[in-house]
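Our preliminary data section would be incomplete without showing what the modeling component actually yields. Below, a chain of 149 amino acids is followed by its predicted structure, encoded as tokens that our downstream tools consume directly.
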Amino acid sequence: MILKTRASVCISSVIFISCLLLVATGSPILGNPVLKDSTFPIGTIISWAGLIALLNTTYLVFNKNGYSHQSSFRLLRLAFQSMLILASAWGLIGFLLAGNWAFTFQNQDEFRGSIEASQYFVAYTVAIVLVPVFLLLVAWFTSPASADL
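Predicted structure:
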């Protein structure tokens, strides 16, 4: 069981780091369409996979450290699971806000695809990245093991 968890953490971490490197370097592959003549860029799938991998990695680390089995961490476990669901819905939420799979926004009066919608999308994305890290820190600082330090 422990070996399976370590392998899962490693695989999720590799996926996250690979996606992060592609996005951070602005790799040209990000703008390529998934299908020929499609407006659905590969970068959307890569970013989506990276967010899910980040959430999966932090949740697996949370579970690996035994926090998920303690009743005092029930709320944190629920928060991690909720964030994993929100990360899984990231692409669909982005599409609903932007009106396209490239997540491009323009200055317009209609909310969908507007600059205001882009602000919601950015806040949503930032929350998906920062909340799990915050939850992991809360779990670590409130665990009985951290009191021994």
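The chain has six helices and no strands. Residues 10 and 57 are 8 Å apart (CA to CA). Preliminary results of this kind motivate Aim 1 of the renewal.
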